[in-house]
Design goal:
This protein is α/β, with parallel strands linked by helices and 386 residues long. 33% of the residues lie in helices and 25% in strands. It holds the Pfam family Abhydrolase_1.
Length: 386
């Protein structure tokens, strides 16, 4: 083989290798991006019930079961449920917790699943509060909602996070109900009990806010004069899009955000590290979400521009009081962006930090502190209730 032919073959081989590498990297980035926007339908059991006593239960030790606070445990494939409290003892591979109550079934040793919401059921079965099941029509279909009545002209709309259910909001209802606020707790597109929007993937707040806007409009059409928005995790991202993009924003008096996503770039960098994905590769996947061609590879209906959901950068645009509760031990949505947002807008943002709770479990670790912070914010900052 002469030198010119050898050089040509070498160049071709280099180009082919680069192409293969590029395809592999794009495939890995697409896989990461799809994981970010794909609802997780199946939630497997993640712990073992080892022993059950009259007022205590022994569980396998996991990252969740050893953390102080109040939590729930689903058993028998979700048909059974009991609630646990203080950690009484901890040893190798096991933790003994106070058994606070049994809501369904009979606790017995076996497979189970952790319930960070603590409560299970609806506002009546879980909290003993009168409620009504209703549906709100949205662009994607009828959204199931719980409505807990109250006397205040300010209604609270409570929005759960990514992959969660309406039960996530139950922890906040008693404190808001005590202030007289009617509470409206909706599902949104791609929830298990809500319509599926083609292609059945999350918009990370960029699309879901339309559903919550429909719920807010329902509230205003049925007696609400003002709205308090309450959200957890991605629910916070949804609500921030609503107040930035909806013509109903003028009716909103404030936001209560628990472990919210205020900067998706930071969250997805963190998620990449957690999954062992190089951050640069994760960023490539994030870029695909917003690229007209990349979003087709991911399977999105339209591009998702995460820059519009970076509220640290957009801090100057905030115009409403915000109560921001976030734990430094949050293992899913780091608290750094929330802290930076609070520092950027101390005139509007009241920040309540903590150091023990995992993601959106601030109430679980300190129910009285959480409810006190929310009550003080609503009564003093918003002049509601009291």
């Amino acid at each position: 083989m002469n030198g010119r032919r050898a050089a040509a073959v070498g160049a071709l081989a280099t180009t082919a290798a680069a192409t293969v590498t590029g395809v592999a990297l794009t495939g890995a980035a697409v896989s990461f991006a799809r994981a970010v926007v794909t609802p997780r339908r199946h939630k497997p059991d993640d712990l073992e019930v080892l022993q059950v006593g009259p007022r205590r239960v022994v569980l396998s030790a996991t990252a969740d079961t050893v953390v102080p606070g109040r939590y729930g445990v689903w058993t028998d494939g979700g048909r059974g449920h009991f609630r646990v409290g203080d950690v009484l003892e901890a040893g190798p591979g096991r933790v003994t917790r106070e058994l606070l109550g049994v809501d369904a079934g009979t606790p017995v040793p076996g497979h189970a699943r952790w319930n960070q919401y603590y409560y299970a059921g609806d506002p009546t079965t879980a909290l003993g509060l009168e409620h009504r099941d209703l549906t709100v029509r949205s662009a994607v279909g009828d959204l199931p909602c719980w409505f807990v009545p109250g006397d205040s002209p300010t209604w609270a709309v409570l929005v759960h996070g990514r992959g969660a259910t309406r039960e996530e909001a139950l922890r906040a209802v008693p404190a808001l109900h005590a202030l007289g606020l009617p509470c409206l707790v909706p599902s949104y597109r791609n929830d298990a009990d809500a319509p599926q929007a083609e292609p059945g993937l999350y918009g990370l707040g960029d699309t879901e806010w339309h559903d919550v806007e429909a719920v807010a409009r329902y509230a205003l059409d049925h007696g609400a004069q003002r709205l308090l928005l309450v959200g957890w995790s991605m629910g916070g991202a949804i609500l921030l899009q609503l107040v930035a993009r909806s013509d109903l924003a003028a009716e909103v008096v404030g936001l209560v955000l628990d472990g919210p996503v205020v900067d998706w770039f930071d969250v997805l960098d963190h998620q990449a590290r957690q999954r062992g994905v190089p951050v640069r590769l994760g960023r490539y996947g994030v870029q695909l979400l917003g690229h007209p061609l990349g979003r087709r590879l991911v399977g999105l209906e339209g591009p998702v521009d995460l820059r519009t959901m970076d509220w640290v950068t957009r801090a100057e645009e905030l115009s409403l009081p915000v109560l921001l509760l976030h734990s430094d031990a949050d293992d899913y949505v780091p608290s750094g962006p929330s802290q930076r947002l609070a520092r950027a807008r101390p005139d509007l943002v009241t920040y309540v930090g903590s150091s023990t709770a995992r993601h959106t479990k601030e109430w679980n670790v300190d129910p009285a502190g959480w409810e006190s912070a929310v009550t003080e914010f609503v009564t003093s900052k918003l002049e509601v209730g009291g």
